[in-house]
Amino acid sequence: xxxxxxxxxxxxxxxxxxxxxxxxxxxxxxxxxxxxxxxxxxxxxxxxxxxxxxxxxxxxxxxxxxxxxxxxxxxxxxxxxxxxxxxxxxxxxxxxxxxxxxxxxxxxxxxxxxxxxxxxxxxxxxxxxxxxxxxxxxxxxxxxxxxxxxxxxxxxxxxxxxxxx
Length: 165
Description:
The chain has 3 helices and 2 strands. α1 packs antiparallel against α2 (34-86), α1 runs parallel beside α3 and α2 (34-86) packs antiparallel against α3. The two termini are 49 Å apart. It has a two-stranded antiparallel ribbon with strand order 1-2. The longest helix is centred in the C-terminal third of the chain and has 65 residues, at 91-155. It has one domain (3-22, 32-147). The protein has helices spanning 3-18, 34-86, 91-155; strands at 21-23, 26-31. It is mostly helical. β1 and β2 form a beta hairpin.
């Protein structure tokens, strides 16, 4: 399931609770279909590991992306070194080769650093969004559970013997 599915399930649960019949003399209490609510909560619980798995997949993809960039930079560096060795015979050619090699290495390192920065920001944004979604879902579930407990406590019969109070 995707993040959108979790949000849709939460919206369904919210709608079910907001449209539920009120309990007489209980302003904040309502009656909902337990099985339906539990089914929605179960669907939300099963969707959360998918969101977490997606975040892990993105981190792995970022690491692979950075690894590829490092390999590319290393290949470019080795290529530049090989070209420099071939041109060692003449001093001027060697000097030019060293300059170009350094430029290529610097360019590759800058490119790799930029790729790492962009990938890091992208993964950080996705992880922050996942964290916010999980936090919002958890908060909503806690609130609904609290409301549910309140409904359950309201349904308990009052003690018939005044000494039980």
